[in-house]
Amino acid sequence: MATIHTQRHPHHHVKLDEHLPTDHRLSQVYRISAGLMGLFLLAFGILGLVHRIGFFDTGSATSLGLNTNGALSTISVVVGAVLLAAAVRGGNTASTVNMAVGIAFLLAGFASLFALDSRYNLLNFRMQNVLFSFAVGLLLMTGGMYGRVSGGLPHDNPYWRSRHTR
Fold first, then answer.
1. How far out from the chain centre does Cα 140 lie?
2. How far is CA 151 from CA 36, 102, 121, 159, in A?
3. CB-based burial of residue 93 (10 Å sphere; 0-12 exposed, 13-18 middle, 19+ buried)?
4. Cβ atoms within 10 A of the Cβ of 115, count?
5. Which whole-number Å values give the CA distances from 56 to 19, 43, 67, 77, 163, in the listed order?
6. Measured between alpha carbons, how far is 79 from 25 in angstroms, rounded to an integer?
7. C-alpha 118 chain-centroid distance
8. Residue 41 in contact with residue 80, Cβ under 8 Å?
9. Are strands 62-63 and 66-67 parallel, antiparallel or unpaired?
10. Digit-coded pLDDT (tens) for 41-60
């Protein structure tokens, strides 16, 4: 039985971009997850802005079934554009952006959950927004971590190879 040595060199710094070849199939997973969510957020934000809702309005204005206001619409356009840019870039950039934005969505969901029905609900969240935020956060994190984070990565996976010097 062959033994695989996992000793790391103390001065061996690996950049994430050198792990994944640009044409690797994992890049498509990262691109698709970032692109689809980016398109939805962009549409949601633009529709909210078109209706000229007050910036911090806490009324019943909705866009694509979710409550919104000018601030949330603006944030959605910016985050949607970041996700689309990551989808165009692909590779590790899309994966890392998916993970970071996914974590941000989860944190926003928790913060908004605590702010519901209070004067601190500046983004006009309702329960459907909180649930959407949790779902999107988990989907983006899963899409970003796919093939990168696991104890059972195959030995031909570029991330496994980068962690196990021979």
1. 4
2. 28, 21, 40, 11
3. buried
4. 15
5. 43, 19, 12, 16, 47
6. 25
7. 27
8. yes
9. antiparallel
10. 999 999 989 888 777 777 77
